[in-house]
Amino acid sequence: MARSDSAADAANPGRLKQIALTYKMTRKADKKIGLVLAGVFILILGVFLAIGFLIGHPVYLGILGFLLAFLGTAIIFGRRAERAAFGQMEGQPGAAAAVLDNIGRGWTTTPAVAMNRSQDVVHRAVGKAGIVLVAEGNPNRVKGLLAAEKKKMNRIVADVPVHDILVGTGEGQVLLKKVRTTMLKLPRVLTGPQVTATNDRLRALGDLMSNMPLPKGPMPKGMKLPKGGPKAR
């Protein structure tokens, strides 16, 4: 029991430090974050206190209001922090890979399955929706890279749907912050065993990263580069 308490105590400062760092990062892109969070907390708590006084139970409603105000503030903070993070990653090489790395369970992602010297890159994700190729870079160059990779996928796994997403802000492109949502909305057509079989077939191709130079540009903080084959999610 003592060891568990010590571990929890050691973890708490780490969590608080992470929250503080996240707040500082968010505040750089969202100057009003402090006022917004304070406003949300006061508004929710004030509404519940007012209702509590009206019905004669200010203590009970005050406690409930405090808990809901804390929860509401946390949700708003999370959303604005996520928006700020996407804003900082937008346009950076490897940003789409960072999004795929956090897409969630049920997906196997492989960053940089195709790349050129201009740092245009195609990433691959495999899930119950099939194969999703996510490309980032100059639209005029990366479209050819994406088309070639899609053709190869159709040849190797002809029985598996292949989707493509071009990350960007132009027409026909998907915003970085909407990549995950777009992928999760794709219809699920494969079973678990079919997903495993597809990954095995693609894994047989080898890791193209071993034969290609890595981008030399800036990478988003926290992004993990692959050390071997696809990373299971």
Q: How would you describe this protein?
A:
Helix content is 54%, strand content 12%. The protein has helices spanning 2-29, 33-55, 58-89, 95-101, 139-156, 179-184, 192-203; strands at residues 108-115, 121-127, 130-136, 162-166, 231-232. It has a 5-stranded mixed β-sheet with strand order 4-3-2-1-5, with helices on both faces. Helix 5 links the parallel strand 3 (130-136) and strand 4 (162-166).
First-residue to last-residue Cα separation: 32 Å
Shape: elongated
How can the largest sheet be summarized? 5 strands, mixed
Indicate the radius of gyration in whole angstroms: 23 Å
Secondary-structure element order, N to C: HHHHEEEHEHHE
Number of helices: 7
Low-confidence stretches: 6-11, 207-221, 223-233
What structural category arises from helix and sheet content? alpha+beta
Helix content: 40-55%
Strand order in the sheet with the most strands: 4-3-2-1-5
Mean pLDDT: 78
Number of strands: 5
Give the strand content: 5-15%
